[in-house]
Fold:
Amino acid sequence: MTARLHELRQEHRDLDQAIERMADSASVDQLQLRRLKKRKLRLRDQIAWYESQLIPDLDA
Structure:
């Protein structure tokens, strides 16, 4: 599970860099940029889910 979390974090960083490069480009494909941003948000949600699974449940 931690290996998958590491992969997702790496992909999230890679997408962040790609989005930044694309946004700096003179000819920006807005549709592609929007798709990358949505993918990045999905990755963030997946990362949060995996992180929550790694936290042990505490009985109140």
The mean pLDDT is 92.
